[in-house]
Fold these 3 entries.
Entry 1:
Amino acid sequence: MGKEMLYNWEKRSKEHRKQYQQLLKRTDKNKILKALPGLNDEAYKNVDCLTCANCCKNYSPRFKTPDVKRISKYLGMKESVFIDTYLRVDEEGDFVVKSSPCPFLNADNTCSVYEERPSDCARFPYTDEDVIVKRQALTLKNSEFCPITYYVLEKLLIG
């Protein structure tokens, strides 16, 4: 059961939201964490992020200070110019991109700053780390636009 599980995944993720919520609240966290590396690898074998890029098209990562320093240097820009050009401060006080899709998203869904991308981008969708159980609201949100997150949660439901 691999790629066929992804059929109509957007609709199914919404339908299964309550089940995911119960799974994350009631299942032994250590059991989930133990299963994540294998499920994460399996999900990436079945989902090609370059055919989706929903994360880059609709949401912004946080740009932390080290990200700003690294990316602005990579682009040959002063940090202040990089911030003024691409970023704004959100309601939580974090730097995020000014517009969607991400200004670094290329037409073929690749990233023009991939080697230097923000740590949030490198870690997304957090399906191989404890964020999946520690930040359950984020995991549930991610399941509705990220097929990787959906896949991992579905596999956890199946057991």
Entry 2:
Amino acid sequence: MTYRAEYIWIDGTEPTAELRSKTKILADGEEPGIWGFDGSSTNQATGDNSDVVLQPVFQCPDPIRGGDNILVMCETLLTSDLSPHPTNSRAATRAAVEKYGDQDAWYGLEQEYTLLDPETKWPFGFPPNGYPGPQGPYYCGVGALRIAGRELVEQHTDWCIAAGLKISGTNAEVMPGQWEFQIGPAGPLEVGDHLWLARYLLYRAGEMFDIEVSIDAKPMKGDWNGAGMHTNFSTAAMRESYEPIEKACEALGAEGVPAKHLAGYGVGIEDRLTGEHETQRFDQFSYGVSDRGASIRIPWQVKQDGKGYIEDRRPNANADPYTVAALMLDTVGAALA
């Protein structure tokens, strides 16, 4: 008897990395070990030295194939010494955990995405070559005139639950054809593993329904909301008292820090962070209680309770969750150490 292991990894596509996968057939009882691929076809190697190593780091049930089949998230390694490949962003998160793991960081990622017609590239639910009514009724909306793509969303959610991923909610977003799912609470490495595999299942759901899934930060120019990956973050100290929350916000706004974070928060930052559509401008930093126009929002309930978490509203939908997790932990971890 045999089973299938779907090896999944992040490639070297620029400016936004993409997921790749291939299937390995394994005998029952055989564990998925290291494997390899042609890096010259994924912007991760040259043709004269093309091999890149896949190192399994997380696995879960494959909800699409069912049975004993599994999904395997992998890091990429160099063949020369099995060190992390330059495109291996998970390695930086591991390094941050080694320094600040004792702070017990938790994350909740809000992954927004847009469903597109694969032929016209127009958002799913928009009239052909036209526009729907202005934003307002679509957020968490109900009804055929407000919602498009719910069957895909339900299928994706079912798969995430069956895979054991830490999906904690879904909702329709402000722009028609735009949706969100949330992953967390989870640790720094765990949240990235689960988010990337949730993206994989989302793209597979798009294949099933013949709908293109986009995580572009600003899929529709003009008076339409962009797509983000708002990042909820806390440490044990922040979950116990309010002073560490204020220290975290001040550290995130310290000289040079906002620019460093924005450089790792995905492609299209300036298109999305305009100061409109519930964003702070990319060239400004602010934090405030219940302020969705700030860079960092402190939820009202957190202020009332005197403890809890913060929401970094700047990461784009196309940001790498490993990179976001490492940046948050390095900056806040150092400030609270």
Entry 3:
Amino acid sequence: MKRKLQTKAGRAVYAARKTIVEPVFGQIKQARGFRQFLLRGLAKVRGEWALVCLTHNILKLYRLCNE
């Protein structure tokens, strides 16, 4: 990582992270209050995460259609 951040291209890619993916996780954590998984086991956690993402996307579509 240190070597990657020493190049201009590497810094640009790393800087783009906060505008591409990071806001979604922040929105889920802040607006939905999702801080930890309630279930145990990889399959159950994947299901819980899918449900959280599904509700996030449905809410985005709902807001988009009701503007």
